[in-house]
Design a protein that fits this description.
about 20% strand; six-stranded parallel beta sheet; about 450 residues; alpha/beta; nicotinate phosphoribosyltransferase; seven-stranded antiparallel beta sheet; homodimer
Chain lengths: ~450, ~450
């Protein structure tokens, strides 16, 4: 979502630039390492799903201030000519370790570590948190929905109430990573190749005034793609009309794909509608439901034996309504040779350059994670952070969205069911290595 | 935030396009009116603040599908050549009535009514809800914060955890409308002319290792703009060091502007820090605070006699955490000559083209609102919806952001205090006119 015409180097908190100016004037040029991690589990969460690395790496790889950015900074009167001259040619020259998109991770585990001259590393803070926290938050929320749906298909319907344009696109991408099968967001289809889905709203039915005529008109327009919205007046009566249209379509060699419920008691209505369809010989016409669903409502309706084949999941998922922000931080953990720990009340971080190691059993199921120092080796454990950028250059092509999606699928399958409950009751074990623990003792604030 | 290079006509739910195709094939060309409104008060709210009209009107005025959009739609295999040919030259040719940005409004009141051939009006649905609901939600949240702060200055610090790039910019703009004095978001400063604010993070202090040396270095770099972050190690000890630096700055003819608290007990620490500063003769050095503030925490700390002069308001405001979405809907209310009401469970809307009338007392204080039909006149009441677009052309220049901000200030002052409580206990009276009530009786579903 970053166009060449629209640059986002200034999409940053002013203090990143004032600090940078002061580092510059104080000749602070040593390499610094910053670490990106989540400080605690929000409501009900017990795991996270990584997303957003691609957007961040593209940003870093192309980082430079435009002429108009520099002219604006000059107009603020805050910055010296020397510093502005420095910004003019500044590029990112450092290294980045990152957790692949689609990986499952846990509290305190770094998902990104940036090492670069302190100005270059500092100045990325606002953007990296903005992009990674939204996408990981939504991928996590979507994973919870997918798990709750126990095999039913989920479609992202959240665009209208996602928090802005960029969020709408990132939500579509993040939900697809986590196993949603499609999105209603057409631009996400165009940009990311995600399958798109959708048929009609109530306004369509209302504009005809006659429900069955509206159904017939739609079936004529889209004989291969018809899902009829049946709750504009009375859902069960709507189902009967849909059944008639389904039978008419069958006579012409077409097939009604499904009906959609969008209001009322989803469990009861889905059962009633299933009966109507079955009695009309339309056993393979599916029931779609789309009324305020999130992981909790999906789980509840399925537990009540709702007859729903696919869910349109909208607003509450798209803004992660029960946990609409993650406490993600990007903290200085090393400057020059000095490991650094922040000590402010309630905001401690782990000093030093780190690596996350994961132990799995012989079937690949996750056993525990160990946060260690960057360069140690831990027996029978696999390092998760990969070098993705060196000397300011990307070290590899981005994986495709399908590859990321597949990585998530395998990863999530390897996480024990007990860590996937919606109340987050069981916490996956994450330890510190002996070396990392020892390093904390020597770290300064 | 809409660049010429990046078009958002496809930032829409697929069903807007499938419905449009079916309207097209069924020769449904009569004018339709859609109405944008909020269905209910989210948690604690009892008023809303309108924002987002400018972004929507710019979108509509420039609406057209690009070649690459049409090529993508063609590749989906869903649409006929005739319909794609129609989309190619489609522009918005209709009329729009809108509530000015910065106006206060209430549940059920239309803030926008779009009248156009049904395809043109339908196809705007997803975008208008996306843009107007986010901006009105944040302007409303920000107004609550401003009211709770009772005159203290508020700065938007939310960028890092706002839900994406677009949200970060819209939050900065919406909070400024509602009376925030500045933002940390540099790009919002560049694009909208909003004052920008910020000085340093903990990483700055940590990178020096010695707190007072970090303070001195910053004061050298920004002698006219220094606000020192004093909680990296121990807040009160940090305040003592800041006081020393403040005295040093005074000797050199400069002035320490303030100190910032970012963790711990805000009330107690602010009182202790105030004492430290006062005893050092630094009575005019201000105390800034920025630790998880929203309207509730602002109100609570001020009630406890916190000595805070200005608040950095971040995450919880920037995502409207206690109400992260508004139930805003865009509903068909008239097609041709036929007023239309939607009857689905719990989702009734008011049929017909409407106007919102506001009665005020002789001092301009709001008395009550009346939702009426578009063309009636209500004695001693002022119509709020203004014609903003006709035949697809904008009828006026957009007001400046400062004008919008001033409109909000006046508007909000005219709303009685009892409707501004944080628990939303008192609801402002909104009635239907006799004519609009009568119309509902005749409306069809």
């Amino acid at each position: 979502m970053i166009s060449p015409a629209e640059r986002f180097e200034l999409l940053t908190d002013l203090y990143e630039l004032t600090m940078a100016a002061s580092y510059f004037e104080n000749s602070m040029v040593e390499p610094a390492t910053f670490s990106l991690f989540i400080r605690n589990y929000p409501h009900g969460r017990s795991y996270f799903v990584a997303a957003g690395l691609e957007q961040f790496l593209d940003y870093v790889a192309n980082f430079h201030f435009s002429e108009s950015d520099l002219a604006y900074l000059d107009r603020t009167g805050l910055f010296s000519d020397d510093f502005l001259e420095y910004l003019k040619t500044m590029r990112f020259t450092g290294s980045i370790y990152g957790l692949a998109e689609g990986e499952v991770f846990f509290v305190d585990e770094p998902i990104l570590e940036v090492t670069a001259p302190i100005i270059e590393a500092q100045i990325l803070e606002t953007f990296v948190i903005n992009t990674a926290s939204l996408q990981s938050m939504i991928a996590t929320k979507a994973a919870r929905c997918v798990h709750a749906a126990r095999g039913r298909r989920l479609v992202d319907f959240s665009l209208r109430r996602s928090q802005g344009i960029d969020a709408g696109l990132k939500v579509a991408r993040s939900t697809y990573i986590a196993g949603f099968v499609a999105t209603s967001n057409v631009l996400a289809g165009k940009l990311y190749g995600i399958p798109i889905s959708g048929t009609m709203a109530h306004s369509y039915i209302s504009s005809f005034g006659d429900e069955i005529e509206a159904f017939r008109a739609f079936a004529r327009s889209f004989p291969k793609k018809t899902i009829l919205l049946i709750d504009t007046y009375d859902t069960v009566a709507g189902a009967r009309k849909a059944a008639i249209v389904g039978q008419e379509m069958a006579k012409e060699g077409h097939k009604l794909l499904g009906v959609r419920l969008d209001s009322g008691d989803m469990t009861l209505l889905s059962q009633q509608v299933r009966n109507v369809l079955d009695e009309a010989g339309l056993r393979d016409v599916e029931i779609f439901a789309s009324s305020g669903f999130d992981e909790y409502k999906i789980a509840r309706t399925l537990k009540e034996d709702a007859r729903i084949d696919a869910f349109g999941v909208g607003t509450k998922m798209g803004v992660s309504a029960d946990a609409p922000y993650f406490d993600m931080a990007y903290k200085l953990v090393q400057y020059g040779e000095r490991p650094i720990m922040k000590l402010s009340t309630g905001k401690v971080n782990l000093a030093g350059e780190k690596q996350v190691f994961r132990k799995t059993d012989h079937q690949g199921q996750f056993l525990e994670d160990i946060i260690g120092t960057r360069n140690e080796t831990i027996e029978a454990a696999c390092p998760l952070l990969e070098p993705v950028m060196q000397d300011g250059k990307l070290l590899r092509k981005h994986p495709s969205l399908e590859e990321i999606r597949e990585r998530f699928r395998k990863n999530f399958a390897a996480l024990d069911e007990k860590y996937k409950t919606l109340d987050g009751a069981h916490l996956y074990p994450v330890k510190l290595s002996a070396r990392l623990s020892a390093l904390q003792e020597t770290a300064s604030g």
